[in-house]
Amino acid sequence: MIPCPIADSDSVWEVLPEANRRVMDALDYFIVENVRSARRFLSKAGIARPIGELEFVELNEHTTSPSDVEKMLKPLLEGRSAGVISEAGVPGVADPGADIVALAHRYGVRVVPLVGPSSILMVMMASGQNGQSFSFVGYLPVKELDRSRAVRNLERRAQQEHQAQIFIEAPYRNRKLFEMLVATLSPKMRLTVAADITAPDELIKTLTVEQWRKAGVPNIEKRPTIFVLGI
Question: Quick one: CATH architecture of 12-106?
Answer without folding.
Answer: 3-Layer(aba) Sandwich (3.40)
